[in-house]
Amino acid sequence: MLLTVTPNPSLDRTYEIPAIERGGVLRATAERMDPGGKGVNVSRAVAAAGHRTVAVLPLGGAPGALVADLLAGQGIEVARVPVAGATRSNIALAEPDGTLTKINAPGPELTAAESESLLSTIRSHAGSAAWIACCGSLPRGLGADWYAELVARVHRAGTRIALDTSGPSLLAALRERPDVVKPNAEELGQAVGRPLATVGDAVKAAEELRGQGAGAVLASLGADGQLLVSAAGTYFGFARVAAVRSNVGAGDASLAGFLAAGGDGAGALAAAVAHGAAAVQLPGSVMPSPADLEPSAVTVTTDVPLDRPLTEPVP
Ligand SMILES: Nc1ncnc2c1ncn2[C@@H]1O[C@H](COP(=O)(O)OP(=O)(O)OP(=O)(O)O)[C@@H](O)[C@H]1O
Ligand SMILES: [Mg+2]
């Protein structure tokens, strides 16, 4: 079983509109609602691959109840932590040319008791999980060391933990030695506080995060593929993609593929790349199913192209 944690989930409402007109009344031609959040995406991708997953979510109010119903409809078990504040609703405006304009709400502020109940719910499920994936930013009320505390407690239960977050909460968690961290290029550059121009720069930055405590670093480099820097060595993975439809959630799909394939080594990196490549060819944050994957299009090598310039360098 793979447990996912999404500290600040959302109810995502997408409206299709002909065009954005500031100050006008926009009439939507279609609308949809999806359970949102990075850990939720990981659970959806893991469930699509036929594995059992439980999503731990603080949920409150009517939007929180809807998130739980939508996930149940998708066959995803939810470990619900009731909170007093209402779960946030995020709005996306989709125009016919593919332009997506998003409004993300801050979400409720969690109380100290709710923070503790989230940690204890995770701890109570940790024993039956092969991996715990903790994803996304923290809601108000959870301090920057909340993920560090989570890693410490999960390790006491003997479970491995993968962390996909950024900024101070990532840096604070490193000292508790998370088994895997999954920054994208921008998050990796931010974590080491310098620009990344080449694949080699990304390798050096990932090694630095290992030096600060990360067991392994799965760094996703957008169109430039992915790096796995671990005790077993450094691998580079890449897949050619015919047409990119949406890169939203491609990192979440990658982490799901990596963990579902064991979370270690060249084979898991190949699965991560296959999931990322499949995700970008699907609309919105739709997670790939096994039928969408093209493992034969993936190359994984220890011959890392260190001098290769990044398509989107990190300033
Ligand atoms: N333009 C692209 N062309 C080909 N593959 C891509 C492209 N963008 C993303 N990918 C694949 O998806 C993986 C994850 O993408 P990216 O590094 O953008 O993740 P991310 O920023 O963490 O995404 P998110 O947080 O929205 O899930 C990449 O490492 C790559 O394998
Ligand atoms: Mg990401």
TrEMBL record:
Superkingdom of source: Bacteria
Record flagged with keyword Calcium: no
Any Pfam family: PfkB
Keywords from the UniProt entry: ATP-binding, Kinase, Nucleotide-binding, Transferase
SUPFAM superfamilies recorded: Ribokinase-like
UniProt cross-references to InterPro entries, sorted A to Z: 1-PFruKinase, PfkB_dom, Ribokinase-like, Tagatose/fructose_Pkinase
Domain Carbohydrate kinase PfkB residue range list: 23-290
NCBIfam families associated with the record: 1-PFK (TIGR03168), pfkB (TIGR03828)
Protein name, as recorded: 1-phosphofructokinase
Organism: Streptomyces hebeiensis
Gene: pfkB
